[in-house]
Write a structure and sequence with these properties.
It is a single chain. This protein has about 230 residues and is mostly helical. The protein has nine helices and three strands; from the N terminus they run H-H-H-H-H-E-E-E-H-H-H-H. The protein starts with 20 loop residues before the first helix and ends with a helix. The structure holds manganese (II) ion. The site of manganese (II) ion (MN) has 7 residues, from helix 1.
């Protein structure tokens, strides 16, 4: 199965002034595209050749894992941006307030996590099986799927995400990124997770056969349609 570069749901120019056309064209058209091309080369004629992206992430290590996870992480990142102001659902907003105090306190904690992550990586909001929300820092290509949690939102803090616009100003980048955050995407992920129908639901398959079967069906459907 050939993996393809996701088509952005907006133009390269659409996220200005918070994210420039130049940054988007390099980030999506060069970096993200590079991971897709590399992944396809690496899995050709291997045991991973026909697997969905999520399955490859769960089963692989080394360069195949790195490139597959980077494809997933970037898809997730782009879906989480929008060139219009959005707000979280009441349900998500209640959960955030309950756990972090307020949306503003959550914003501060999330941005701090982005600023303090050492080296290249990603900052996530994820949810575990007990419905507890987590702000997670992951290095390089790692993501919450690996640790069995479900990703809800993400910010890319690799230098290539901000160097053209902000040079070394990662904090400035994070503040601008926040303006673009697509709360509809985050809220949908949260709602779907609560109903155990999240597209990215990553359960250990020995515990809950029903969910496991559902995930296999979902992955199969994804495979057939792509
Ligand atoms: Mn990136």
């Amino acid at each position: 199965m050939e993996h393809t570069l996701m088509t952005l749901p907006y133009s390269y120019k659409a996220l200005e002034p918070y994210m420039s056309e130049e940054t988007l064209s390099f980030h999506h058209g060069k970096h993200h595209a590079g991971y897709v091309a590399k992944l396809n080369t690496l899995i050709k004629d291997s045991e991973y050749a026909e697997m969905s992206l999520v399955k490859i992430i769960k089963k692989s290590t080394g360069p195949i894992f790195n490139n597959a996870a980077q494809v997933f992480n970037h898809d997730f990142f782009w879906h989480g941006l929008l060139n219009e102001e959005t707000t979280p659902s009441v349900e998500l907003s209640d959960s955030i307030e309950q756990q972090f105090g307020s949306i503003d306190a959550f914003k501060t904690a999330f941005i701090d996590a982005g600023v303090s992550l050492f080296g290249s990586g990603w900052v996530w909001l994820s949810v575990d099986q007990e419905k507890v929300l987590h702000i997670e820092q992951t290095s390089n290509a790692d993501n919450p799927i690996v640790s069995g949690r479900v990703p809800l939102m993400v910010c890319d803090v690799w230098e290539h995400a901000y160097y053209l616009d902000h040079r070394n100003g990662r904090a400035e980048y994070l503040i601008n990124w926040w303006q673009l955050l697509n709360w509809h995407f985050v809220s949908d992920n949260f709602a779907e997770q609560k109903e155990k129908r999240n597209h990215y639901y990553i359960h250990e398959c020995n515990e809950n056969t029903e969910v496991c079967d559902y995930m296999s069906d979902l992955e199969e459907a994804e495979r057939v349609s792509s």
